[in-house]
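Our consortium's second objective concerns turning raw sequence data into structural hypotheses that experimental partners can test. To show how far this objective has progressed, the report includes one record in full. It was chosen at random from the queue rather than selected for favorable results. The single chain below, 359 residues long, was entered without modification.
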Amino acid sequence: MSLSERQQTLAQTTLDLCGIASVTGNEKEICDWVQNRFVAHTQWHVTRHKDSILVSPHQRREEKALVILAGHLDTVPPRQDRSPNIQGDWLEACGASDMKGALAVMLHLAETLDIEALPVDLAMAFYGEEEGAYDRNQLRLLLDQEPLLHQANLVICMEPTDNGVQVGCVGGIHATLTFSGRRAHSARPWQGENAIHAAGPILNRLRQQERRAVSFGPLTFYEVATITMAHQTGTRNVVPDEFQLNLNYRFSPGKTLEQGQQDIIDLIDGECEVTFQDLAPSGHTCLDNPLLRPLLAKTGAPEPKQAWTDVAQFSAIGVDAVNCGPGAPAQAHQQNEGIRIQALSESYDLIADWLAALG
């Protein structure tokens, strides 16, 4: 297919971004690159904290609503067979869908919109370490350092949604389940207690446990608990005296972290030791936000976000946020990840037209 000038420009910026390795924890180079893009654009005020940037108008118009576009700079480790490339309408590169294509859209909106002519104030947050542990996510740093973010009337987290609107998000808890036994030689296992076998009842309960549906109006979220990692002590001819499982629990909006922890405690029923880490809250649904309605008029009915995103961090400070970006959810974290170039221009037009319509 023949690409339009805007599609070519968006594709090239996405390709440039994807050409900068930015696996979680190594975002300095890409943050420098994004910051340098704003040097020639005097309509924006740029503030940097570590490897994260807030881009905002020089003067806040207090009578206007404030909209924020947010996107993370990092990617998971690449699993690409080929270098970043373009074939027709398809751009293939690590992070293309999650979420450097969205970053390209944000940059071109910043460079082409007349922000003083917009009926709302607009700001943008570019931040690092989203794909890693929750307590290292640099959006938290921006939220701590930038009061402007707390004034937002609506935030668009430009996570991959195929340009639809996904509302809310499930919370996530990781818990280490530790089972204890007694070491013995594997030729004489009756002289010990196998810690792996001790995990059997809980594993069987999890295998039989069905997902639990929780509805908020037209949106249905699913609560699920899944074992994702296992580790034991000892070697091949030793009955293990310790066995650990990582349990990942995803819970619905409306449930607190404390309630989520209690769900896990009830599940294990005292059969092992539990240690909690990486506790991430859920994001609330905000279908009644007046700024959201014109966006839904363009995208159609919203969907629930059956994953964790940074809408939860904004929810935690009382700011409404939704997910809407050009990336394909099915491509996120995949080997040979890619994105449709047309989706980039569709995202640009969607956000630009929505911002103009807010007047």
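The partners drew two points from this record. Residues 96-112 form the longest helix (17 residues). The chain has ten helices and 18 strands. Both points have been shared with the crystallography group to help prioritize constructs.
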